[in-house]
Amino acid sequence: MSVNLFLSKRMSSVRRGASVSFCTVFSSRSSTVLSGVLYAVLAYGTWGIFPIYWKLFGSVPPVEIVCHRVVWSLVFLTALVVALRQGDEIRRIFRRPKVLGMLFITALLLSLNWGIFVFGVNSGRIIETSLGYFIVPLVNVVLGCGVLRERLRGKQSFAFALAAAGVILFGSHLGAVPWIALGLAATFGLYGLLRKIVAVSPLAGIFVETALMTPLALGALLFLCSSEPSHVFSSRYLMLLFVGGGVVTSLPLLWFNRAVKLLPLSTLGFFQYLAPTLQLLVGAAIYHEPFPPHKLAAFALIWFAVALNLHPALQPGPATPLAD
Question: How does 41-62 read in b/e, with b if 16+ C-beta sit within 10 Å?
Fold first, then answer.
């Protein structure tokens, strides 16, 4: 009888332990998903209202704006690296040629994306830039499923088809190949995929990317100064805008890279509709760009797709661990 009682107590203990372990794992996954969602909303919400900031530069050439974004981002990120003592990981990255090479590619993709975006905003084509970021989530879903072997669950497949139809309708009446939209989608989609694969922390990765871009940015600024006066010294107002550009560039990138490590790429893809939706509203409501009925219909299709996908997207699922 005493042996049976002992075994009964042991089995009960094991069951309680298993129950605690299951609850701990489920709680951890839920916390990871919610953190990823928070960082995604912060990043895409900020990017959504970005056109307002870049419009403040007026007639400053996009190349000069992008170069200053790089330089002042490095200044801001250096302060963060020193404050958070991330120098050891950065030194390890510079001793790993393969990782460094991958970050050089992501740096080029990011620079190209910035240049296309600033050009689109300052040439009065904010709604076309929003189309580009409407396409990015579809690119991410394709890359997530095709490269990372992620799977669409339940209603996600139907939501993907609806969103694709909305994007096609959105772009069908532009009257020309929307190269700004396609360029933004391709560069940022590939950037997100490569940054998910590279095993570096968000801050260290962005710092190295920016450091690799800085010599090119400084060289371009020197070349521009040789042909015409630099805008950075023309007024205190522009000087503050250039410096602030480093901060508003770096913070959303940090939030995005944190989200991309916490969420599956196919899930993250649907949260990206927040940014182009806000950009579209900024272009139409603030800068009065044309927004005809067919674009409104496309907008409705895309948001219906997001609504269908939202519940399964928030369920705990596999995520790439952070490389902190």
Answer: ebbbebbbebbeebeebeebeb
